[in-house]
Amino acid sequence: MKTVLLCLAVVFTLTACGNKKTDKGEETLDSAAVEEKVLLEQQEETPMPMFLYYMNPDYMQVVYWTDFEEPKKTDDNAEYFDQMHLNWAQQDVILRHAEGYTKMLLSDGKMVDIKYVGELLKNPDGEDMYPGELHSRPSIPSPGLQFAFVNPKDAPKRDYNYGELFVILHKDYLDSRKQLKVTYYDVEKPLPQTVVKQMEKKYNMKATRSVLTSKIGDRYTYGSIQFAGEYKNAPKDKNRDYKKALALEVLMDGDKVYPLEVLGYYDEGECTWNADDGGEYFPTGISAAFEGPDGLELCYEHGAPESRTVGIAYVKDDQLVRKEYAVYHSMIDEETPLWKKDVAKLQKLYVADDPHENKYHKLSKYRWIDIDNDNNDELWMRDKDDQHGALFTVNKGEYQLIGVETDKLHASFLQPQNGKGYVRIVGSAGGPSVYTQLFALKKSKVVERFNMLEVEGNIDEASLNGKTISRSEAADYLDRTPDDWDVYIYWRNIEE
Q1: Which CA distances in Å does 471 have to 268, 360, 436, 468, 477?
Q2: Which of 65, 143, 313, 359 is 20 to 30 Å from the Cα of 224, by its Cα?
């Protein structure tokens, strides 16, 4: 059932297509399905542009949108089998032609060299991964085709952590296409009133909003129109028996206007096209444009709060037509996984800090916390009794111990400040003595280590980065540290 549900919302959606029987009882595909097969054969000859999900140079993938094993027809999937198989076949074409995808198109229109480096199907624990999802953290892999830059210096300069979808191109495609420059409008502009009025007349509806999004080459412009009310002339669909809202994607070529209908839901005066869109249609972005043997070809991405849809658009019979590659589910607020293979490694690092004592304590629960606010979590672990624990940094899958908790020394945190975060481990050193460790982190690395012993509330001795400092220097250091950070503590058991 999971596979069926995924295939209903992915590449080459054929909800209006189905098998028909001839007089002899033979099954034959209807015209729309035949067209899809023709397109698939064309792609075998000239592989079309694809979309690569990029988070950093170590995480750049064409993420699979459907199962990577060829589906088999069963009684349970018979109704959707043709759709499923076409989805898989399109994905399989990309796999078989992967080595030919040698160019990546950056946001400024520049092309850089890339190379195919392999297929990823299993997570670090050796388990199959679910396709069709774009994860929010580099630590969470996806199934798909992995790529790398030929020259690492070509990596896009980015100051945020979430992933982007970039167009990648096959060498055979580039041999027969001319790239067109895509210019985006920085300030929201409406479509020309002549175009809006023309579409209002065509659909007999009132436009409430229009957005001009981009200019393509020296000839085309692109945008969208949103209408009010119910679209009463919407095509009938027995599988989707609800009132429809209407928006248009619009390609303009001089005086020619090519619309594409995008149906949404209409209910009690409210229109919606995507979850949490607030009644506002989100315009589609043109990622790349090419002039090919049969005319204009547009690579598009339609973003929404919980999904990202990618594909190719072109003009046919005076209409703008889109062929979806995939409707990806955008995963948000994901927790960084703690892979089973890493648990033993972390326990070993903890024990190595004090082999005689720590070997008796098992780290059995954990939580992630971004101590230095750099979008890369640190790991805090404890035993089941909350008496012993350890904190770790992690960089590209490599863990380093920050410090340990004992039955007398426990951790707390200071507010992140100026790119630094702070872990404080404090407790009794016996009698009237209190021992303090303070670790400053920056970009997920420990950059300062402060140690101090107090006796009856007075500083007795202190050190910074292994060097002894005076009592006044220690006091000054503490005065410069930020306020306490009251972190909400919740734990996840490793066995879960």
Answers
A1: 71, 36, 14, 10, 10
A2: 65
Question: What distance in Å separates the CA atoms of residue 59 and residue 148, rounded to the nearest whole number?
Answer: 8
Angle at 285 between CA 284 and CA 287, to 5 degrees: 140
pTM for the model stands at 0.83
The predicted-structure confidence for 387-399, as pLDDT tens digits, reads as follows 999 999 998 889 9
Token pair of 258 as six digits? 């090519």
Give mean pLDDT, residues 457-463: 96
- Report the alpha-carbon distance of residue 434 to residue 426 in Å, rounded: 7
> In whole angstroms, how far apart are CA 202 and each of 195, 206, 322?
10, 11, 20
Give the C-alpha separation, 223 to 252, whole Å: 8
pLDDT tens across 118-159, in order? 999 999 999 999 999 999 888 899 999 999 999 999 999 877
Are residues 197 and 210 in contact, defined by beta-carbon separation less than 8 angstroms? no
DSSP letter at 152 equals G
For 233-286, the DSSP string reads: TPPP-TT--S-EEEEEEEEEETTEEEEEEEEEEEETTEEESSTT-TT-PPPPEE
* Residue 64 · residue 314 · CB < 8 Å: no
